[in-house]
Amino acid sequence: MTSQENIINTIEEYSNMVYRIAFMKVKTKEEAEDIYQEVFFKLTQKMPKFKSEEHKKAWLIRVTINISNNYLKSAWRRKKVDLDENMEYIKDDFNNFSNVYDEVRKLPEDYRLVIYLYYYEGYKISEISSIIKKKENTIKTWLSRARELLRQRLEGGFDDE
Length: 161
Hints:
The protein is mainly alpha-helical and 161 residues long. The protein has 9 helices and no strands. It has helices at 3-26, 29-46, 53-73, 75-78, 88-91, 98-106, 109-120, 125-132, 136-154.
């Protein structure tokens, strides 16, 4: 397989994941699209050799997080008003759980990211720790606090409770 075919396959396989992580971080469709493009541009520039598919996926997540963080720190971004209607993009995936989704989106940024990686991408705490370069105990704390906040906010919100 040529390097160009490999890049195309990588984009096809991981594009949704990269976009969703960017979107969860920056909360606007337009910025998420910019980050998405920048991540895959960086992939084509660097052409890294990956040890495995998991290594490739972790690299893409790390780069997405880093680029998203840079967007969040930019002076231009701080002066911009956040538009809530952009959140409708990924709400479709959660249409049966819209109140859960609404509460997840209200969580602090670090909690949102950990919830996403743990529940949606299926990563273990140790893997999340490695990807976002935080101690495992920090990840456990964030996950625990996020769950507790969600539990408090959603208490009594489901038929089976």
